Amino acid sequence: MSNRTRVARRDWIEAAYQELVRAGERGVGINALAARLGVTKGSFYWHFKDRSELMRALLDRWAHERTDEVLALTLGSTPDPRERLRRIQALGHEVAPIDRAMRLWAQHSAEADEAVRHSDRALLGHITACLDELGFSPGEARLRALLMLRAWVGGYLVPSPDGGEAPGAERTLEIFLADPADS
């Protein structure tokens, strides 16, 4: 690309998104993004006031993708709550790199923390609704939903201590959906 190449605001956000996954929030720099896009820094300032504005746009994209688009596509196509839970679990594996980067960013940024919390509240609502449909009491559904989310997130934040594979997704879901009286 030459310096005369025009890039849109969304191109900057996409490049920042990829860099966030690769290098974390602190690795998202204007110079590196300009080089990646083959443009000058001036192009950046045509679309954004400063890096903070780009980072807010990145948070908005992630929150929208995670809560609205992906969850709607994943959950909206089947009435079966078990299948929806399977899809949420599978989705977690697909988005693990960006989700991990967002959670690490949220440890030192109030804006990122709020985006993660907002997204988690929406996801917990979907998981809880599935568990409600499966007959769990409201309190039990909420607790299990929280444990499921923590286990799924923990699955890519905490590697297996012995280096082995974790239980399969289906087995993990069976454990979460088991009736304690059946044990």
What features would you highlight for this structure?
183 residues; mainly alpha; Arc Repressor Mutant, subunit A; Tetracycline Repressor, domain 2; 73% helix
Structural account:
- With 183 residues, this protein is mainly α.
- The protein has two domains: 1-48, Arc Repressor Mutant, subunit A (Orthogonal Bundle); 51-182, Tetracycline Repressor, domain 2 (Orthogonal Bundle), CATH 1.10.357.
- 73% of the residues lie in helices and 0% in strands.
- It has nine helices and no strands.
- The relative contact order is 0.10.
How many beta-strand elements?
0
Low-pLDDT stretches:
none
- Second-tier CATH architecture of the largest domain: Orthogonal Bundle
Per CATH, what is the topology of the largest domain? Tetracycline Repressor, domain 2
Tally of discrete structural domains: 2
What is the first-to-last residue Cα distance? 62 Å
H and E string? HHHHHHHHH
DSSP helix fraction: over 70%
- Identify the CATH class of the largest domain: Mainly Alpha
Major sheet size, sense and barrel closure: none
Layout of SSEs?
Layout: H1 9-23, H2 30-37, H3 41-47, H4 51-75, H5 81-94, H6 96-106, H7 110-133, H8 138-157, H9 169-177
Helix pairs in contact: 1-2, 1-4, 1-6, 4-5, 4-7, 5-7, 6-7, 7-8
Short synopsis of the structure:
This protein has 183 residues and is mainly alpha-helical. The chain has nine helices and no strands.
